[in-house]
Amino acid sequence: MLRKILYSIWLLLVLFTVFVSVKNTNFDTFISMIESRTFDLRQNVLIKERSKNVSDKIVIIAIDDATYEYILDKYGEWPLPRSIYAELVDYIEKQQPQSIAFDLMFVKSMKSNAVADKKLIDMMQKYDNVFVSMNLDDQSHDLRTPPNLPDSLSIRVDNKSPNVDFSSQTYTNCRKILDGILYHTSNIGMINVTRAEDGILRKMPVLVKYQGKYYPQLGLKVGMHYLGLDPKKLVIDSNSNLILGDRKIYLDKDGSAILNWYGPHETYEYIPMYKIIQLVNGKYSDVDLNFKDKIVYFGTTASSLFDIKTVPSSRVYPGVEVQATYVNNIIDNNFIRRLDRSFTIFLGTLLSIITICIVMNEASAFVGSLAAFSVYLLYVFAAYYAMKYFNLWVDIIYPLLLAILTFISAYIVKYLIKSRDFEQQYMLATTDGLTDLYNHRYFQEQMRMMIEASKRYETSFSLIILDIDFFKKFNDTFGHQAGDAVLRQVAQTLKKNIRSTDIACRYGGEEMSIILPKTDHEIAIFTANKICARVSSKDFRLPNGRETSVTISLGVSTFPNDGVTAEELIEAADKRLYNAKHNGRNQVGG
Known about the structure:
Helices cover 46% and strands 20% of the residues. The protein is α/β, with parallel strands linked by helices. Strands 1, 2, 3, 6, 7, 16 and 17 form a 7-stranded mixed sheet that branches. Strands 23-24-22-27-28 form a 5-stranded mixed sheet, with helices on both faces. 37% of the residues are buried.
């Protein structure tokens, strides 16, 4: 029972420690970063297993390093004249793509080429399946006056979840794109991203806020178009799911969707943009690229154009591929759902309870450790398969940390209890039950050890042997219970009048002995006389309430003067005890 109580107290202490640690922002941030890395590891293992299929409906037309060099050689400048994009869209639209999306921001008019801008604007007004991007920010109002955006770009949101808060996705300014696009199409999505504390992009906002209104992410707009949805209102249910037709996108507390990652850089079908430009210009007549029913993304992948992110699947990952991954998740209904903190604490507590059960019931520390760590390994595998088959992000670090702390604490408690049990057993084996003095066997062991130590270090020690005068007559007069009471009280008087290093033992019957380490004969005689006087002056209480007095006689011997073996020392002390009795009792025979 005591063991269970101690285990429970330790478990509560561990839980309290973890709770306090969770409340510590720095510690929580540190653990969260490690947990995020376990997410990355799980994602990469899943990618290597090829458990997730990259959508063949997505094509990326990349402004890669080769395209960037081609543009500088052919057009002499960057950015590319915007009429080129219009020509490319016209070419692709002939094959009836599902949609075309630009992960590029057409900000401000190119004053040196207004005609090219006009062609881009006309193209946007011509096709209803072409999407462009814009970005919100927090630039100072001194630099840029926050513009008002058309109502057609915003979307109404019915947020029924108490856990989803878009405050971290709220911005105070934005970079406008060309007015001709901004005010003539609603196919505009935001491309703001959400990075974790370690700089890795694992999730993306679905909505961002500006001037009190919600604006959808570019990938969300493209995905909704793919699903045939164009709602003016979105609903976030009480379980933090964004409802998209028959699909549900679980939102993290900051309103972001956690992405499932499909592979490293260039996982998707990848076409350098310079090849499309050459096709449009008639350089190749035998090349036939298939864009029918495809989602075509334009974006930069050249490292010199600075749209490179770090994601779980790759340290170098272009922003346009992040957008493609976002859409791929919508197509597959494949977003990750992270279990909330309360469930994490529940799992940690469950692991801790299992740990305690193992430690309590397994006698072998090795087997117990092996069993506990096997459970932890199974938990890690379960967390992996939960992500693989159910898209669930089950936290690993906090539950395992709690379980391992419990494991360590449980074994500390277990060995403290074992130590206490050992001490109790040792006490029972070496202590006389009546007087609470050491027993005769312990006395003999200590005598041998004391002789060996005294011989080695050339020191002396003394022995006192005593018994109660006329004890047999006392028992006959007052009864054995009274005799036992006197024995106990004499033993207590001995313990109170000797040093902590002295060893008081019950020698047998009414006889008792005291071993005095590093004590010469003169001091031993002094100690014996003191004990004799204290006993004779004490009133001893009997079980019937009466009080009586007793006396003792004592004999003293000293190593090596009176002997060099236990038998010789005991015999010498016994003779002097006999002399004390013969000379009238209640005295010391030295």
